[in-house]
Amino acid sequence: MDINADFVTRSITLCLEHGATSRKSAMHTSVVGTSDGDLRVMVLREFDAGTHTLRFHTDARSPKVKSIEANPAMQILAYDPEAKIQIRMRGRGRVERDTPSADAAWDASTNFAKRCYLAESGPSSETAEPTSGLPQWVEGKNPDDAQVAAARQNFAIVLVTVTEFDWLYLANSGHRRAKVTIGDEGTPSVSWLVP
Ligand SMILES: Cc1cc2nc3c(=O)[nH]c(=O)nc-3n(C[C@H](O)[C@H](O)[C@H](O)COP(=O)(O)O)c2cc1C
C-alpha cells in the first residue's frame, strides 16, 4: 500500500465520517478531553471535513461545558480496531445553545434521545440515592413532542475544530504515523513520525 500525505488526510476523513454515521464504528464513541484534565466518552455526531470540525451533543449544565467555556483547548482520542487506525486530535471547542446548528441537531434527535435532557439537575450533581435524574413520570417512557419541549433549554452542541491530527496505522509490514497540522487557511500539512 502506498501511504502518502493524500492517503492520510483521506483516511482521517473516512474514519471520522464513518465514526459519525455508523453506530458500529468504535470511533462513534470517542474519548473527549477538556482543559481541566477530565476525560469522558461522547458520541461523535458529525465530522465536517471542510472545516475539520467534530460535533458532539451534551447537557448545557454539565461540568465539561463550563470547562470548555473557560478554556477552549480540547483533545479527542479515537481508535478503529477494524481499520487499525488511531487518531489523536487537538483543537478548539465551542459550545452552542441557541444557534441554527443547535436547533438543527435538536430537531434531528428522537424524543427518546431528547428525554435525557429532562433531567431535573445537571450531570455530575450529587444525589442522595442512585437515580437517572429524570422526573418519575418519564421513567421508562418515550415522551411525546410536548413532553420533551422543556428539555430544549438544557441541550447544547459542542463543536471542536481540530488544529492537529496524529494518525497512527498499525500494520504487520511496519506501522506508519503522521502528524497533520491545519494551517490558518485551513490547509493540512502532513509530516511523518516514528510510530
Ligand atoms: C457510550 C457512552 C456515550 C456517551 N455519550 C455522551 C454524549 O454524547 N454526550 C455527553 O454529554 N455525555 C455522554 N456520555 C456520558 C459522559 O461520558 C459523561 O459521563 C457525562 O457527560 C458527564 O460528563 P462531565 O461531568 O465531564 O460533563 C456517554 C457515555 C458513554 C459511556
- Tell me the number of structural domains: 1
In CATH terms, the superfamily is Electron Transport, Fmn-binding Protein, Chain A
The secondary-structure class comes to alpha+beta
Q: Could you say what the CATH topology is called? A: Pnp Oxidase, Chain A
In which range does the helix fraction lie?
Answer: 10-25%
Low-confidence parts, pLDDT < 50 over ≥5 residues? none
Instruction: Determine and state the CATH class.
Output: Mainly Beta
Number of strands: 9
Average of per-residue pLDDT values: 96
**What percent of residues are in strands?**
35-45%
Overall shape = elongated
Taken in chain order, the helices and strands follow as HEEEEHEEHHHEEE
Query: What kind of sheet is the major sheet?
Result: 9 strands, antiparallel
Distance between the termini: 17 Å
Instruction: Based on the coordinates given, report the CATH architecture.
Output: Roll
Number of H/I helices: 5
Cofactors, ions, other ligands: flavin mononucleotide
Structure description:
It is a single chain. It is built from five helices and nine strands. It is α+β, with helices and mostly antiparallel strands and 195 residues long. The chain has a single domain (5-107, 155-193), classed as Electron Transport, Fmn-binding Protein, Chain A (Pnp Oxidase, Chain A). Strands 1, 2, 3, 4, 5, 6, 7, 8 and 9 form a nine-stranded antiparallel beta sheet that branches. The chain starts with a helix and ends with a strand. The structure holds flavin mononucleotide. Flavin mononucleotide (FMN) is lined by residues 29, 38, 40-43, 56-59, 62-64, 123-124.
